[in-house]
Design brief:
Layout: E1 3-4, H1 8-27, E2 33-39, H2 43-59, E3 62-68, H3 74-86, E4 92-95, H4 105-111, H5 123-131, H6 140-151, E5 160-164, H7 171-180, E6 184-188, H8 195-199, E7 204-207, E8 225-228, E9 232-234, E10 239-241, H9 246-249, E11 255-256, H10 263-282
Parallel strand pairs: 1-11, 2-3, 2-4, 5-6, 5-7, 7-8, 8-11
Antiparallel strand pairs: 9-10
Helix pairs in contact: 1-10, 2-10, 6-7, 6-10
């Protein structure tokens, strides 16, 4: 029987830890504060913003919503970002991307200070992931996958792990984080030949290709732990699905995260924990 690795208890533990840290910071006169910088009214941005605000309120983190119109002048956007960079009362900045085409997104990413980059998008944060140092913060989804492994006592040390996907949001950073835990990691991507033959040999599989239900039983084997990072709306089934075809994995692998209710439910808690950690580092 396959064990379901739910994200809710992982998020609950993170929230409890954050509450204690927030109380300690407030006792010193410091209120951890997140600035959400949003341009326009994209529904996916609004949905994530609501989730982040809810989680922040639960643990006592303050949120400043900085909303600019979709047609904001580029120089006005950069003035706003620079103001938040230099505001000592703002500990973390969540800058929604992609930005409108008339704003240089690469310039914005490079301008954001790594120490306030709670979503792990700057070069500084990614360097911190690769060097295993506290420069910025890891991408939240990659860290959420690691938090799930940690919570359920799944130690990657000495294990063969296959990561499907090489994006800077999850694939490459989670591969580095696994190596820091002494795992032996193989990264598969769109040019990898015969991916199933590789994933079947792994003890842990991180499915992060962004291809809904592309990982079927041919990719999997008994005894594996599968962390499904993908999420998308399956029109035919009328529900959210991950990168793994759950019906074929269930009963075959040893452990698997569900979609929804797995990695995604931990990601927002990780985001807010980065704000708290940023406040601790600054004080």
């Amino acid at each position: 029987m396959t064990d379901i690795l739910k994200g809710a208890p992982v998020a609950k533990k993170l929230n409890e830890e954050m509450k204690n840290d927030v109380e300690s910071l407030k006792a010193k006169g410091v209120t951890p504060t997140l600035a959400i910088l949003r341009v326009g009214e994209r529904e996916d941005d609004l949905s994530y913003e609501r989730g982040a605000m809810k989680r922040a309120a639960e643990v006592g983190v303050e949120v400043k919503n900085v909303v600019l119109p979709a047609d904001v002048a580029e120089d006005e956007f950069f003035k706003t970002l620079e103001r938040l960079n230099n505001d000592n009362n703002v500990h973390g900045i969540l800058m929604f991307r992609p930005l409108p085409k008339h704003i240089d997104g690469e310039k914005a990413r490079k301008m954001l200070k790594a120490e306030k980059d709670i979503d792990g998008c700057t070069d500084g944060s990614l360097a911190g992931v690769f060097t295993n140092t506290n420069i910025g913060f890891p991408p939240c989804t990659a860290e959420a996958a690691m938090k799930i492994l940690e919570f359920y006592d799944i130690d990657p040390k000495g294990k063969n792990v296959t990561v499907i996907g090489r994006s800077l949001v999850i694939g490459r950073p989670v591969a580095m984080m696994l190596m820091h835990k002494n795992a032996t990691v193989t990264v598969c991507h769109t040019r990898t030949i015969d991916v199933p033959s590789i994933t079947r040999k792994a003890e842990i599989v991180i499915a992060a290709s962004g291809q809904m239900e592309s990982v079927n039983k041919d990719y999997l084997s008994e005894g594996q732990t599968v962390i499904d990072v993908g999420i998308g709306w399956n029109e035919a089934k009328g529900k959210l699905c991950g990168d793994v075809l759950f019906e074929e994995a269930d009963g075959l692998v040893d452990k698997i995260t569900p979609v929804p209710g797995g990695v995604g439910s931990v990601t927002t808690s990780v985001l807010i924990s980065h704000v708290v950690e940023a406040a601790k580092r600054a004080n």
